[in-house]
């Protein structure tokens, strides 16, 4: 796309010569217009975007310097070259103060002027490219931060309230929710189960990247959140005034399944939540889709949940509630609650009639898979234990076998839970020290979890249990408190403070700081430092 140049001179023959002699096409410019004075030029610039202004200094009505002053006051982005027959340093000095890019004396040396224009436009394009790259980088940083927050919301680790400082304005977002999952119990996934942890991690990373790139290419505002090994939640933000177009949403799901199959060579299933979900709905919507995908014995590759075909009975719901409580007890290492859950499941099975009993097998089937995957995330199963369980899973077995696996897994966890709990306490203490030492770095959940020797999902759960807030809430709070202290007590620039608390991009730091404090960093500093000038010296930046 060509840039636009405006020629301003009260001598018509000069603007005509400039139009004809300067090779505008070669310079990537087109002459957008000419003007005889500053008033005419300002009027044209308010009507259209101008990239370069060539302007005489001495003109009637409004001279060139006055025009430049108005341009800068109005904040109109434009590079400026001044033309003048007066070799007076005062003009040059004033022009420089107004941010003029260059100054050419009349009679105009056209070859020299062409070189000046070429240099200025080259610099302008480099700046535009840099700004675009910074904008894309900032956008990706915000996307990644949002994904971390959305993960905590989906997993129900954080409260979604209007006054939550990390969610200011975002709680009104509306999403299409699609869960993509690998059927880990099927024959097709035996190879995947044999992969090492490193191979699985690379595979999960590749799937996330493929999904994000495809959504970006299609211009869909999105978040791709890996929930656990082999399962993702894709959120596509939609217009609040739009309608739930199921055919379009199914086409999106098909597109995502196809791109994963083509690039990563794995077949997934897609579950779509049957209506739009707000931020407050995400956790419940995800659980309904996840549960529906696992409890439907035979389902389509792309299916809508909750399903009209699958109606939950009171017995189903009672079993499901008990199973979920027991899984939570396993994660907490609560022996008594695990034993109580097993006893409750057994009693419920004994009280069921034949139709309910046959319906419960898929529930147990799902729960065993769910339990094995969660234990895998927690790292409480050795590779040998996991392989042995998968071998048993590949054989046909009934209710008693399913209950046997549940007992085996939960008891195995119980035996090591006390040591695991002590180890977890040590891991969290080391994690806190690690975060405090590295606030200046762009830390991720994945990197910190790896440092603690835990999977990201289990790390997130353990962190919330240990500190009463999510990883991103804790890290952001620590950074903001440190930034507040530095703004109030030092003369370091906002950009420097942003870097020292882990934000490479000042604009993103300002956005987060305003959410946290309700003030931008400059205003915050001004108020605190003006109030602190009653005898206390500010700390000079280290040189």
The stretches of 5 or more residues where confidence is low (pLDDT under 50) are: 538-543
Name the CATH homologous superfamily of the largest domain. Answer: Reverse transcriptase/Diguanylate cyclase domain
CATH class of the largest domain: Alpha Beta
Using the 3D structure, state the CATH architecture of the largest domain.
2-Layer Sandwich
Do you know the CATH topology of the largest domain?
A: Alpha-Beta Plaits
Spatial shape: elongated
Strand-residue fraction? 5-15%
Summed up, the domain count is 4
Largest sheet: 6 strands, mixed
Total number of helices? 20
The SS-based structural class is alpha/beta
* Rg over CA atoms: 32 Å
What portion of residues is helical?
55-70%
Number of strands: 11
Mean pLDDT: 80
How far the N terminus sits from the C terminus, by CA atoms, comes to 45 Å
GO molecular function: DNA-binding transcription factor activity; sequence-specific DNA binding
Protein name: Two-component system response regulator YesN
Pfam family, one: Response_reg
InterPro entries: CheY-like_superfamily (IPR011006), Homeodomain-like_sf (IPR009057), HTH_AraC (IPR018060), Sig_transdc_resp-reg_receiver (IPR001789), Tscrpt_reg_AraC-type_HTH (IPR020449)
């Amino acid at each position: 796309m060509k840039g636009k140049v405006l020629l301003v001179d009260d001598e018509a023959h000069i603007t005509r010569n400039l139009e004809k002699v300067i090779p505008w096409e070669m310079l990537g410019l087109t002459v957008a217009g000419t003007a005889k004075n500053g008033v005419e030029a300002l009027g044209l610039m308010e009507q259209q975007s101008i990239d370069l202004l060539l302007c005489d200094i001495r003109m009637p009505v409004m001279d060139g310097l006055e025009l430049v002053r108005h341009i800068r006051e109005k904040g109109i982005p434009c590079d400026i070259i001044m033309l003048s027959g007066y070799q007076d340093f005062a003009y040059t000095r004033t022009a420089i103060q107004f941010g003029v890019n260059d100054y050419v004396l009349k009679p105009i040396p056209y070859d020299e002027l062409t070189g000046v224009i070429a240099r200025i436009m080259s610099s302008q394009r480099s700046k535009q490219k840099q700004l675009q790259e910074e904008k894309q980088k900032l956008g990706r940083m915000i996307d990644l931060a949002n994904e971390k927050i959305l993960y905590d919301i989906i997993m129900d680790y954080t409260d979604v309230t209007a006054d939550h400082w990390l969610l200011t304005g975002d709680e009104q977002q509306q999403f299409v929710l699609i869960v993509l999952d690998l059927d880990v119990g099927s024959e097709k996934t035996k190879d995947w189960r044999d992969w090492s942890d490193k191979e699985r991690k690379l595979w999960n990373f590749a799937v996330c990247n493929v999904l994000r790139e495809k959504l970006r290419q299609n211009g869909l505002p999105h978040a791709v959140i890996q929930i656990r090994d082999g399962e993702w939640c894709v959120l596509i933000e939609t217009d609040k005034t739009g309608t739930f177009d199921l055919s379009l949403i199914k086409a999106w799901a098909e597109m995502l399944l196809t791109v994963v199959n083509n690039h990563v060579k794995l077949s997934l299933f897609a579950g779509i939540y049957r209506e739009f979900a707000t931020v407050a709905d995400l956790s419940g919507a995800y659980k309904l889709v996840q549960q529906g995908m696992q409890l439907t014995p035979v389902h389509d590759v792309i299916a809508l949940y909750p399903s009209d075909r699958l109606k939950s009975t009171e017995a189903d719901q009672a079993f499901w509630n008990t199973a979920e409580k027991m899984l939570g007890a396993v994660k907490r290492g609560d022996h008594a609650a695990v034993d109580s859950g097993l006893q409750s499941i057994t009693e419920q099975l004994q009280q069921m009639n034949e139709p309910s009993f046959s319906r419960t097998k898929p529930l147990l089937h799902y729960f065993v898979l769910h339990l094995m995957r969660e234990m895998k995330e927690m790292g409480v199963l050795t590779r040998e234990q996991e392989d042995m369980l998968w071998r048993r899973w590949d054989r046909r077995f009934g209710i008693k076998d399913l209950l046997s696996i549940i007992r085996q897994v939960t008891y195995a966890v119980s035996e090591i839970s006390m040591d695991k709990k002590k180890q977890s306490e040590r891991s969290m203490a080391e994690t806190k020290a690690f975060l405090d030492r590295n606030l200046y770095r762009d830390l991720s959940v994945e990197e910190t979890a790896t440092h603690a020797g835990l999977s990201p999902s289990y790390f997130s759960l353990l962190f919330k249990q240990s500190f009463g807030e999510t990883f991103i809430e804790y890290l952001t709070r620590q950074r903001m408190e440190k930034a507040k202290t530095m703004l109030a007590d030092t003369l370091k620039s906002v950009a420097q403070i942003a870097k020292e608390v882990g934000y490479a991009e000042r604009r993103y730091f300002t956005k987060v700081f305003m959410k946290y404090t309700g003030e931008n960093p400059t205003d915050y500093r001004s108020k605190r430092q003006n109030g602190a000038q009653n005898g206390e010296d500010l700390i000079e930046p280290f040189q």
